[in-house]
Amino acid sequence: MSLTRSRPIAWSAALALVLAAMLAWPRAYAQAPIVIKFSHVTTTDTPKGRAVERFRELAEKATNGRVKVEIYPNSTLYKDKEELEALQLGAVQMLAPSLAKFGLLGVREFEAFDIPFMFPSRNVLLRVTEGPIGRKMLRKLEPKGITGLAYWDNGFKVMTANRPLRTPADFQGLKMRIQASKVLEVQFRALGAIPQAIGFSDTHQALKSDVVEGTENTPSNIYTQKIHEVQKHLTVSGHGYLGYAVIANKKFWDSLPGDIRGQLEGAIKETTRYINGIAEADNAQALENIRKSGKTRIHVLDDNERAQWRRALQPVRGNVEARVGRDVLQAIDKEAAALGFK
Ligand code: LMR
Fold it and tell me: Distance, CA 221 to ligand 1 centroid (Å)?
């Protein structure tokens, strides 16, 4: 008797549970955060590392937690060779590779940033990255399934080796680590050195084991990768630039709800202001830390030495002009001229 009476109660309870679950499901689904995996190759205490963390803070706050940013720094998820491929496949959603690495994608205009002495000042550089030339270059990434979002600054590079590098003759026969960029290859050949492309995370070891004998990078990258511990000499040459393009998987970016995309764009804008404001000081501090370590002697080019470097590196632009695009180079010259440089 009690069994037959309890059956309808059990059925209606089960039905109520199913209904409640059906009602709750879309809400739970809507509340599941959108995850952005952001992979990069430098440590968290570099300008890029600090900027990605700032972006996470701003993005999560602006979207009220609807977006969750997972950061994979210091090549823990992908090395620089693999990360662009991972982005295109959608295994990660955002990256900030150095501009030198975009030639690998076949978008060669980005290699303009690698041409030695191309940018007479940081202000010219910022006019290019923050203006129409920079925007036009980012749009060229779209057919590759990539949305270009912003440029982030790091700074001008220094050279390191276990011998002093004062004049071009000091590079003769020296095996130099480069990022995978055709222009950087031409640059070191012009100095009589032997360039070799090596991943960022493998550079310290390659220098330690004499696979290569020297390298170029920003002080912040050199200090945080402990490159100064295996290099006795550093030359402040300011011969070339290293910056980043912040990019996203295009399919992912286009699929975001409009309000979220707008909030993320705002977070990127603010992060760009942040990194462009800290990069110079971070690099000055890193150079000071290298000096204080006592492991590396620092040499600053004097006017005469700089003139020799310029002369030796002057043919590089002509050699790569057809590859990079004459119009881009002329457009950059115009920005320099607008700031009074000839
Ligand atoms: C390098 O490979 O030297 C740099 O691109 C690393 C970085 O991302 O700053």
Answer: 7
